[in-house]
Structure to design on (93 residues):
């Protein structure tokens, strides 16, 4: 038990894993590996194989550029952002 400054009980906030964000990060890394391995020659080819929009694939692939500590926070449930917020925060340039 941890005691708060006011003498009451305090518990650290429960971590909440955002399954949608975890899934997006996992997909991004999987797609990156498929491109880097040469299995697909282009993003368009991969998007067609996955039956998804190329634009969506490109947006999700940007998640592979996140720092390892941010990815760790996402996987541990310590991230405080949602998928839409994460994608808006990563500039295209």
């Amino acid at each position: 038990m941890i005691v708060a400054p006011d003498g009451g009980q305090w518990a650290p906030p429960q971590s909440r894993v955002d399954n949608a964000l975890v899934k997006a990060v996992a997909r991004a890394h999987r797609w990156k590996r498929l491109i880097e391995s040469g299995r697909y020659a282009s993003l368009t080819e991969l998007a067609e194989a996955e039956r998804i929009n190329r634009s969506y694939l490109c947006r999700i692939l940007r998640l592979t550029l996140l720092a390892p500590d941010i990815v760790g926070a996402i996987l541990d449930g310590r991230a405080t952002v949602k998928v839409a917020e994460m994608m808006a925060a990563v500039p295209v340039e």
